[in-house]
Every structure is written in C-alpha cells, then in structure tokens.
Amino acid sequence: MKYIFGIDIGGTNIKFGLINTDGKILLNDSIKTKSELGSDKTFDRIAEEIEKLRVEKNIEKSDILGVGMGIPGPVLNQETVVFFANFPWEENLNVSKLLGEKTGYKVKVDNDVNVITAGEVWQGAAKGHTEVLGVALGTGIGGGVISNGKLIAGIGGAGGEIGHMTIVPNGKLCGCGKKGCFEAYVSATGIERETESRLSINKKNKVWDIVVKKEIQKVEAKDVFDAAKLGDKFALDIIDYTTDHIAHGLSIVLHITNPKVVVIGGGVALAGDILFDRIREKIKAYSLPVCVEELKILPAKLGNEAGIVGAAALILN
Amino acid sequence: MKYIFGIDIGGTNIKFGLINTDGKILLNDSIKTKSELGSDKTFDRIAEEIEKLRVEKNIEKSDILGVGMGIPGPVLNQETVVFFANFPWEENLNVSKLLGEKTGYKVKVDNDVNVITAGEVWQGAAKGHTEVLGVALGTGIGGGVISNGKLIAGIGGAGGEIGHMTIVPNGKLCGCGKKGCFEAYVSATGIERETESRLSINKKNKVWDIVVKKEIQKVEAKDVFDAAKLGDKFALDIIDYTTDHIAHGLSIVLHITNPKVVVIGGGVALAGDILFDRIREKIKAYSLPVCVEELKILPAKLGNEAGIVGAAALILN
C-alpha cells in the first residue's frame, strides 16, 4: 500500500492527514499555524511533523507518494502561491519547491476550495465525476471548477472565483471593492447584512426574538435559518431572496462548464433541505434544460476532513 | 507534409478546406447543404467531395490525418451531435462514426463556435494560448471556452453556452424562452430590438435617418454603429448600453476560467474600435484586478476561414 500526506493550512491550525491510496485516513493530527514565524519556519515545522507522523506509523519513505496541500489564496500550476489570503508571507512563493526540498517528497498545492472540490470528487458527493462545480458557501464564497477531469486555475489562479462574478450590476458593495458580487448576496456575511438591514425596520419576527436573547445582539446567518424552520415569514422571505440569488449565480456557471454535479459545502450549506430544495427549484427558471436535466445539486459529504482528503487527491491526479 | 480536411456545415453551404499541418489553406471549396436530403445522403455527398478534392490535389490517402467538422449545435466527445440547430436531422447522431465509415478517415466534430475558437488558438488572435474564451457576437451569441488547452463541452455539450447566462433576472425575453439572457441584450437581434423600442418614441436621430432611406424600413445593428460613428448621441447611448452588458457578461466568465485572451468575432464584432474600446474600459468595474490585468480582448482574425481552419485544428489537438 502507498500513502499520501494531505495538509490543510488554515489561519489557526495546520491539519495533517496520512491517507492511503484507497482514501482511508490512517492518522489525523494538527499543529498551531503560528504564521507570524514566517513561511520558511512554518514549512520547517510542517516537514518535521510529516517526518514524525511517518515514523510513528512505521511507513517507509519510498511508500509515500507525495504531499498535497490546500492554502487560502490563488495558486499557479499547483506549485506557486500567488499570495496567501491570511498571512503576510511573500508573494509568488513556490511552495512545491520549498517543501519539496525540506521533505524530499513530491509536493502539490492548490487553493483551499479547489482542494475541497478535488476531495469531493475523489471520496465525496461527486465521486468519480469529471465535470463538477464545488462551492464553499461560508463567510465568503469560493468555487472549484473541474472540467475534463481537471481543476481550472486560469492564468492567475483566479479560476473558480465565483464569489466575485457580478450578479447585480451596481448592486451591494462587496468586500473586494466591486459592487454586486455573488458573495455580497449569498455568503453568511451577505445574509447577515440583508437581515440587519431588514431588522432595522421590522422587529416583529422570530429572527429578532432569537437575536435579542443573545449576549452580543448580532445576527448570524444560522439565526435566519433557525427562524425559517419555525415558519417565520420574515426569515422565509430572506431565505427566498438568498436562494434566488444562489440559483441565479450557480445557473450562470452551468452555462459555461455544464457540470454533472454541483457540490455545496461551507457553513451556510449546513442549513440543509430548506436551502437545497429552493436552489434546485429556482435554478430551473435561470437555466437551459440541457444544463439542469441531468444535474445533481448535492451537499458536500466530507465535512471537516475535506481539506486533508482533497489535498491528498491532488497527488493522485 | 500531412494534410487535414476542415469542414464547416452551415444552413446554406458546406465549406471545405484542405489544410496542411502548418495551417496553410491549400484549397477552398463549397457545396450547397441541401439538408432536406437527410443526414445520410448529406454525409455521402461530403465524403464524395473529400475524395474529389484529394484526387484533385494528388495527395496520398495515407497523408490525410483526418477530417474535422464544425456544426451548429451541441456535441459530445467531439463525436456525437446532440441535435443539429438548423436541420431536422436525427438526435444524438455519431457523425464521427458515420463519416468515418464513409471516408476511412479519423473524424472529429464540434460545435461551430468551439471550432472557431480552436481555429483562433491554432492560427489566429489567440495563437498558442491555453486559456481562452472565444465569443461569436452575431444574430445569436455563442462561446467556446478553452481551459488547460482543451475545449470545455460539459456533460451535455452545453459548455460555452454563454448566450444563455442570465445577466438580468426577469429581464428581456430571449428566444430560448428564458428571461434576461446575455444573448437577448448583446446579439445583433438584441441591439435591433432595443433600437426599435427606442425609435418608437424618438425619431430625431441619425439611426432613424438611415433606416427610413432603406427599401425595407427595418433596423439592423450595423445602422446603429454607423450612426454612432457619425457622433449621433441616440446611437452612442445604445452602444454604451450594449457594451456595458457585453462587459458584464464577459466579466462573469473571467471569474470562472480566468483566461488570458478573449477573442470576439461575428457580425457585431465588425463594428471595431467603437465596440472593443468600450468593452475593454467597462469590463474593469465588473472584474477583480487579477482577472483583467493580463487579459487581452481581441477581435477574431480568421474571419470567414475560421470555420475550416478551426475544424482542421480539432484533428491536431
């Protein structure tokens, strides 16, 4: 049996998985990221951890096929990180070369949402498919587009940047500085902004009831879904508004890459059927029949392990 | 030297090119399509024409690498035409097999806009690039998306169907039955509809002056561009409106596949700088810097020969 290390670098923790070529996770581990130590020191610590885990599991170096890694930010050629979205590290860092030299293994790197998508294709909801759109609906929105079995990076690593498609010209201001981005409408932050705006003129609803009971009276996207599940009309209106925008945005991608599966993960996706049922219904009005007839819109399956499993998948592709 | 036949099946004519592996066109020819004779008879006639041209040029059968073909409609695996957009022929016809058997050559087929895009990549404005968006702005709107050097077909051949992305929810009715499609706004037909609508309440402009002089008083997109070039404000407003929608629609694709080159052809693109200058300027407001900094938006180069050159390119890929 051969093995792969899958690594998921987050702002707080670096997660490690030792995964066999069947996709089984043999070992899960994590260390603090401590990005303030700089990139070189961090990759030293990663190399040490990899070696520690390999020895712990008594695996020969020759049985390690490589190291896959997911990072937040655009990546070129699965080697070079254009910039790290969370860390003040150098731009255009060839992580593949750097960690390759420190470990002696083949190293492939990709954007975290691309990695999650690759994981869902290898072992999750989109298992075995070659035409897939992966979507992370969280604080922000990320996308991973797989066509002809390969991730689309584009010339600057911005392939799959679906969060910044303009869906409403001159619409809501987005964190990126543009207006009307998909992310400004359908991310958790977007849902919260819309809800706060509506609450400012309507407090007779269950969302407000939930919010006032909290220590810090701040709306969270989850409050809206919770109130909607209780049948609250105010909350259901926001869900309709949001899912209509999600359906519109996703339908656009269907006409460009015509995927078989759209896999949606991230915190907002945890809302479940109340979200997915509406998206599946609303997307039809925005789409040519050929784009939706055989389409499956599915919740992500791998959850917290998507990052390490997907990172390992990079090495097998 | 080796040779390829490139064939472009249109509603009226079938064009033939004999092209060498350097992209040089040795011979141009055409026959009437006569689609009413049915698919089988038509492909018999195509096979006969190929043989006639080969003998005429005194080329050995073994020096023919294959036959590439562009057709209007979605295509799977560069083999099977899901349906012919213009002809009442059978669905899911494996043209590759059918014409392969009739000629003895390897045959590859693709959608006409995909083929044109492949041609522009092989010998035209996007020569040598692997990340390209090809756009045909004509009576309708078609797209060809090339990522990682390959055309994106998707599961139903609807990859690159950018004409039917919804850019204005609940917007103008499109010929496909949906509302707010890109095509409804930026095709020649879309420009003409918008112009007719505006002319109905404003006839004091140069577009109207041009239209009334015609035998049949019908607006054509070209009239608008002609009036705009004379400085007519009414026409310039329509150009601004149209190019703003073009910029919005194209910017969306930039965030999905992050191409290096957007090549725009078709009748509307013949308007030239007045169109391209505005698109290049307006697209910035809709796009993340990473998507436009190194982007080139170029007019197609191959013109009428794009179909046969692109069809030949399929065989080399």
N-to-C SSE series of chain A? EEEHEEEEHEHEEEHHHHHEHHEH
Biggest sheet strand line-up of chain A: 3-2-1-4-8
Termini of chain A, distance in Å? 17 Å
Compute the CA-based radius of gyration of chain A. Answer: 20 Å
Q: So what's the oligomer here? A: homodimer
Kindly name the structural category of chain A.
Answer: alpha/beta
CATH architecture of the largest domain in chain A: 2-Layer Sandwich
Chains forming the largest contact = A-B, 45 and 45 residues
CATH superfamily of the largest domain in chain A: ATPase, nucleotide binding domain
- Principal-axis shape of chain A equals globular
Structure report:
The structure is a homodimer of 317-residue chains. By secondary structure, the first copy, chain A, is an alpha/beta fold. Chain A folds into 2 domains: 3-122 and 305-316, Nucleotidyltransferase, domain 5, CATH 3.30.420; 126-300, Nucleotidyltransferase, domain 5. Chain A has helices spanning 39-56, 95-103, 112-123, 182-186, 188-199, 206-212, 221-229, 233-257, 273-282, 289-292, 306-316; strands at 3-9, 13-20, 25-32, 64-71, 75-76, 80-81, 93-94, 107-111, 132-137, 141-147, 150-151, 261-265, 296-299. In chain A, the strands form 3 sheets. Chain A has a 5-stranded mixed β-sheet, sandwiched between helices. Chain A has a 5-stranded mixed β-sheet with strand order 11-10-9-12-13, sandwiched between helices. The longest helix of chain A is centred in the C-terminal third of the chain and has 25 residues, at 233-257. Chain A is globular and about 65 Å long. Chains A and B meet through β10 and α8 of A and β10 and α8 of B.
